[in-house]
């Protein structure tokens, strides 16, 4: 999970749909705006270009029209994450709020050997951070038999992405100055919030003092 800025103002159709008996919150430009704001990623698992997309109400609306048509409450999630979050994980960190520090207060780890594993740890004692950590663990590791299958597919995508990031890093560490400049540009693309699984990649950088210094700008929340 990384910080993603929600564009303003809200799509005008939402206010209009809110006045109708059976208004549609996926009206007009809503889907396109969500796709842009969330960089075509699921905000929870950070899978870029997910096959299944849900418009999630960050705070479940339960029929409350204010929450149902509130632009700041509409998020882009994949079906796997939306279902996993369900009603079980209430009050998680909000990735559109810079102060929630979603990729700094939570540590995203991959352990490639002997089998690819994901570990998520909270770095501060805070109820919402703890709930978010538990949601992310459920998302990447699965709880029910179906979710375990989905999580396995998600981890395969994560593994492939981390492998290509690591091989770029290996090349970068061995490169001469000219090639280093070129590869730094490629690495920065991976560390941008529009990339897949950015939080994991940022933690690989944070775990190396030298790399963290070189790519410090890419580790800020506003990126
Ligand atoms: Zn997801």
Give a quick rundown of the structure.
The chain has helices spanning 13-18, 30-37, 65-68, 79-85, 127-141, 145-174, 177-191, 198-206, 209-214, and strands at 53-57, 74-78, 106-111, 117-122.
Can you describe what's shown?
With 223 residues, this protein is mainly alpha-helical. The chain folds into 2 domains: 13-98; 104-219, no CATH class. It is built from 9 helices and 4 strands; from the N terminus they run ααβαβαββααααα. The strands form 2 sheets. It has a two-stranded antiparallel ribbon with strand order 1-2. Zinc ion is lined by residues 42, 44-45, 47, 77-78, 80-81.
Features:
single chain, binds zinc ion, 45% helix, mainly alpha, 223 residues, 9 helices
Rg, rounded, reads 18 Å
| Proportion of residues in β-strands | 5-15%
Give the biggest beta sheet.
2 strands, antiparallel
List how many beta strands DSSP finds. Answer: 4
The molecules bound to the chains, other than polymers, are: zinc ion
Q: What's the topology here?
A:
Blueprint lengths: L12 H6 L11 H8 L15 E5 L7 H4 L5 E5 H7 L20 E6 L5 E6 L4 H15 L3 H30 L2 H15 L6 H9 L2 H6 L9
Antiparallel strand pairs: 1-2, 3-4
Helix pairs in contact: 5-6, 6-7
Bound molecules: zinc ion.
């Amino acid at each position: 999970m990384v910080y993603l800025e929600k564009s303003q103002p809200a799509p005008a159709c939402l206010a209009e749909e809110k006045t109708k008996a059976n208004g549609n919150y996926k009206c007009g430009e809503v889907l396109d705006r969500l796709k842009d704001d969330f960089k075509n990623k699921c905000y929870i698992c950070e899978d870029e270009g997910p096959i299944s997309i849900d418009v999630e109400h960050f705070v479940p609306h339960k029929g409350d029209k204010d929450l149902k048509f509130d632009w700041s409450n509409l998020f882009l999630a994949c079906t796997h994450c939306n279902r996993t979050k369900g009603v079980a994980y209430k009050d998680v960190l909000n990735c559109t709020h810079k102060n929630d520090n979603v990729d700094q207060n939570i540590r995203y780890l991959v352990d490639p050997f002997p089998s690819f594993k994901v570990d998520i740890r909270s770095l501060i004692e805070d109820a919402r951070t703890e709930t978010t950590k538990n949601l992310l663990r459920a998302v990447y590791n699965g709880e029910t038999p179906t979710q375990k299958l989905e999580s396995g597919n998600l981890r395969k995508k994560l593994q492939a992405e981390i492998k290509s990031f690591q091989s770029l890093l290996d090349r970068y560490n061995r490169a001469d100055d000219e090639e280093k400049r070129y590869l730094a540009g490629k690495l920065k693309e991976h560390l941008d919030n529009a990339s897949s699984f950015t939080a994991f990649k940022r933690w690989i950088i944070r775990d190396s003092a030298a790399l963290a210094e070189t790519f410090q700008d890419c580790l800020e929340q506003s990126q």
